[in-house]
Amino acid sequence: MIVRPNSPKLRSGILTVRNTRFFVEIFNADGGRVLKRTIELASTSRNHFTREELTDVPTSGARVRATVGEKTDEKDLIGYDKPVQLSIKYNNEDELEIVDYL
Predict the structure, then answer these.
(1) Could you tell me which of 22, 61, 76, 85 has the fewest CB atoms within 10 Å of its CB?
(2) C-beta separation of 60 from 32 below 8 A
């Protein structure tokens, strides 16, 4: 039985759920980090989604980096209203993606 680092484990007929930890960082146009936040979600064998409201985003544009384990995705945010509503997806194939923002 293959168990991925962030997947549920079956022990004695009891499903043990581990958390998926997202690290979200926001950088201003000059590359300086203005926010680092840790988000924890309960894991299942299905996709993990989080929608975060980010109020500390610079008004002139920003770059967002999401990290789970060794997986990282970055997205430049352009033309948004504050606060930013950010969706991040992490699936059971260990794929990470910043899906969208408002």
Answers:
(1) 76
(2) no
pLDDT of residue 15: 39
Report yes or no: 25 and 36 within 8 Å, Cβ to Cβ.
yes
3-59: per-residue pLDDT in tens?
344 444 434 444 334 566 777 788 877 788 887 888 776 555 456 677 777 777 777
The CA distance from 28 to 4, in Å, is: 34
Q: Which two tokens stand for residue 52?
A: 């975060």
The token pair at 47 is: 């996709």
List the domain boundaries for the chain. 9-101
AA letter at 89: K
Cis preceding linkage at 5, omega within 30: no
Q: Which one-letter amino acid corresponds to residue 42? A: A
* Contact indicator for 18, 6 with CB cutoff of 8 Å: yes
Backbone angles phi, psi at 44, to 5 degrees: -135, 180
